[in-house]
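User: Sequence in, structure out. Go.
Assistant: Echoing your sequence, followed by the structure tokens.
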Amino acid sequence: MKGRAWKYGDDINTDLIFPGRYLHIFEREEMAKHAMEDLDPKFREKVQEGDFIVAGKNFGCGSSREQAATCLRAVGIGAIIAKSYARIFYRNAINQGILPLTTSETDMIGDGDELEIEVEMGEIRDLTRGKTIRFEPLPSFIMEIIKDGGLIPHTKKRLRER
């Protein structure tokens, strides 16, 4: 998968990802309009389908609201690459079908860099800087959920197979 990196720092909380004043919105397309709005007002204009968020430590901290992951999926984020995650956000990302990758080397990636992720090989290639970054591949059962588009589509698929 290929896309552009949108880079942010440490402790990006769920209010910065999806502001609390919009919690009354449930339509994904409407939620997407407010993704990262308080952190990066131009994010919605810049991001394209399949792009990546790159962050430091503790991405998704704060509340347990699943709208933070939902709005990122709705805006087209294909993966999040961070040093670490708040645990509930990590699971919410998987549930929404977003690939949450963990590496200590996010400082090597620049804002706007063109990246290519080889999930099976555990590699992120920064095509802009000519560097390769390793990450620990996710377990196969999590990759199944991601490939199916999230937990709900995955569960429906499994029920149909019975």
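User: And one key feature?
Assistant: The domain at 2-160 is CATH 3.20.19.10 (Aconitase; domain 4).
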